[in-house]
Amino acid sequence: TFMKSCPVDADLAYMAAGKKGKDCEEEVFQEPWRKQELEKPAVVVLAHNRASELQSCLESLLALPEVSLFKVHVSLDDPKSWDVMSETAQKAGRQFNVDVGIWKVEPLEPDPEKHGQEVQKWFKMNAGKIAHHYWQAFERAFMEWKYENVVFVEEDLVFSPDFLALFRSGAWLLNKDPSLWCVGAWNDFGYKGTATDPCRLQRSSYFPGLG
Fold first, then answer.
1. pLDDT single digits (tens) 151-193
2. Cα–Cα distance for residue pair 145/167, rounded to 1 Å
């Protein structure tokens, strides 16, 4: 579990609890609160063919003041929609004076010599196509562009004002604890009736696949 105290004075601090394999009451250590200046940060929006959703997503993202600290890319995986989706992304970029890069991902062509029939069937399903898109986006972001910190989102999301601040504030955790894989902004139980503390982050083994 990761807990932070709400801002109360100039000496803001995060309270992080529960190192790898330990109960949160066994060890508590403090770290200075800070929005870390990330090295080579980027935001990648994965999109398919929903231009209106992509427009709403980018208008929400590009309106955030901290977006100027990130490089923004839109990754597209539907060749039939590349033109309209690219124009939608570029139009949003012009509206907010932000350079939006476009990545185009070709559909996966299964290799019968490497992939069995069941795997080939899975590649043709939506889950397989999405997994391929994510893999391509990861490879391009970390291996080709050499980004150190990347936020991945999908095109049907709109963002709270502190969306990017969350990742900047939580990035130090990834350096502090090697057992952590990512910082996630999605909570399936983040409703008024189930979430009572807006200043608490929790460690989870469930992949936050929506942001």
1. 999 999 999 898 999 899 889 998 899 999 899 887 777 777 7
2. 20
